[in-house]
Fold:
Amino acid sequence: MAVTRFISGELDDSKRRDMIFRGEFVLFKGVPSMKLLCERADFLAREAFGAGIEPELAHHHYAREDYLAIVDPLQRRFTNDDTAKRLFRNALAECGVDLEKTFWDWFPLRIQPGSGTHTEMATAGLHGHRDSWYSNLQAQNNWWAPIYTLEPCRAVAYHPRYFDRPIANNSEGWDLGEFRKARAEVRARHGTSEEVKNAYPAIRAMEEVDGSSEIIFIMEPGDIICFSLAHFHESVQNISDIARFSTEVRTLNIDDVNSARGAPNVDAKSTGDAYEDFFGISDNQSILSLATSR
Amino acid sequence: MVPVYTFSQGIDDERRREIIFSGGIILFKRLEGLVALAERVQGVATEIFSPHDPLTAHEQLDRFSYLSRVEKFQRKMTNSQDIKDGFAAILADLGVNNVLTGYSRFAFRIQPPAHSHIDRNTATLGPHRDSWYSQDYAQTNWWTPWYPLDAGRSLRIYTKYWNTPLPNTSRGWDLDEFRQARASVTKKNGSFEEVKEAYPPVQPTERIDALSAMDFIMEPGDILNFSLAHLHEGPPNSSGICRFSTDFRTMHAHDIQSGNLAPNIDSESTGSGIGDFRRLADDQALAEIVQSEDSQTVDASQSGLIG
Structure:
C-alpha cells in the first residue's frame, strides 16, 4: 500500500523525510519559484531553438544531428544557470527544505522527444531502476518537476509495490567509481554516445516486474514530486509527438547521513557511493568533509 | 497503469469525463471556494461538538452522546442550502455544466477511530466499487476532506483493479430490493446490525492485492474525482483523529444518452441510482433531462445561466 500526500505550501523538513523514508510520495502543488523556474527553462529553450519554434515540438523542425547540437548546450546552460539555481533553491525552501542542512547534486534539463529518431543518450528515457542500485545513498530524496504540462505518455511511472520488496537485479559486482571511470575514458577519446553508454553495463531488473501497482502523476508546471531513491521508477515511453521537458535534483540532509537514516535497501548490492556529487545548498560546501558516518 | 492528474483549476469538462472514464483519477488542488466552504463546515462542527474538539470528541463523549451529535451535524449539513449552493458554485468553477449535470446528495461522513463509536452514521464500507451497487457507468465520484488527512485517515483506491476483475457477490444483487429491505428494517427501528443484515452489501470473494492500493492524503480545499468503477474504501481509521469528509456523485446527461461510460469488468448486479440525481441548476430530476430531446441540443454556453 502506497501513500501520496498532496501539499499546498511548505511541509516540515523532518516530517517530510520520515514520510519519504517510509516510501510515501509527496507532491507539492503550485510551488511559486518552481513556476518561475519553468518559465526560465522555457525562456532558455526558446532562445536555443529559435524564434517561433515551440520547444516541445522543436524535434519536428530540426534534423537529428542539428537537434542534438542545440540540446547539448541548452542542457549545459540550464544546469549552470545562476537564475535557475536560485529559483530551484527557493522552490525547495518553499517546500520546507532546511537549506542549511541540505546538500544537493545538480539538476539536468531532461528533454525526451517523442519521436524515436531524435533519441540519443542526452534525450533518452530511463529504463526501470532504483537510484539506490547506483548510488548507495539511502537517505537520498529525489525531486522531480515537469517544465511543461504532462500527459500519461509523457511522464514518470512508479511501481510502489517494490519499495520494500526486492527485485532480482545485476547490481552485484557493479561499482559506481568503475562505472564513472569507464565512461570518462570513452569520453576522453571522443567516443560516440553509444560507446559511452556501453562502456559499463547498466543495472537492470532480472525478473519480470509486476506492473499492477504502476502509478503516474500528471503534473503541471510549478509542481514538484519528492520520493525516495529506493522507489522503482522509469520514464514512460514517449509515444506522443510532443517532447517531455523535466528537471530533477537529489538532496541529502546531513543529519540523516550521519545517523544512517534512510529508506531500506532491499536489493542493491553494488559498491561505491555518490557522496562526492553533493554540495551544500546554502554554502556550496562538499558533503564529504561533514559526512562522518560515511 | 492509472494516471493521477493534479490541477489547480477546472479543465474542459469533456476532457475531465474522458479522463475519468478511462480510469484516470483527478485531484483538484486547493480550490478557493472549497477552502471557504471547509471553513464554514468546520465552524458548524465546532459548534455542534462544543465544548469538545470535533476531531477528538469521541474520546470525551460516550457512544450515545457522540452519535446524537453526529446525527445532528449530518442532518444539518445534508439539508443545508449553503452546502448545495457552495458545491454548485465550485463545480461551475471547475467547468461542470450545471444544466446537463445531475448530482446526488452530499453525504457527510464522520469516521471516528474508536470502534465503540461506530454506527450506521459513522461506518464506512470496505473495499468496493460503486458499480457493484448501481449500473450508472456515467457516474463520477467526488470526495473531499473537511480537515487535513494523514496516514491512517485517508481515502484508498486500489488502482490495479481498474482493469483487473475482482470476484464478488454482485450476482443477483439489486439496488431497489436492497433499499426496500433496508427501509423495512429501519421502519421497525431495527438496529444497525439488523439493517446491515437485511440485505448484505456486495463483498469481494477473493483476497485483495493490498500492495496495489494508493492512499490519498489531501487537505481541505482539495477534491478528488474518479469513476464509480474504481475499487476504493475509507480504510479503518487508525490515526486517533476523526475523519470528516463529504462525497457525492455527478452524471452528465449526454454521457448517459451517448453511452460515453466507464467499463464494467465484474459487476453483475442490477438497478440504477439515477433517481437520486437532480440537476445542479434547478434540482430537476436528471432522468427527465436525459429523456428530453432538448438536452441534446443544450450546449456548454448555456451553463451558468440558471442557478
Summary: Residues 48 and 70 of chain A are 6 Å apart (CA to CA). The interface with chain B takes residues 1-8, 24, 27, 29-30, 152, 155, 157, 160-161, 165, 211-220, 223 of chain A (CB under 8 Å).
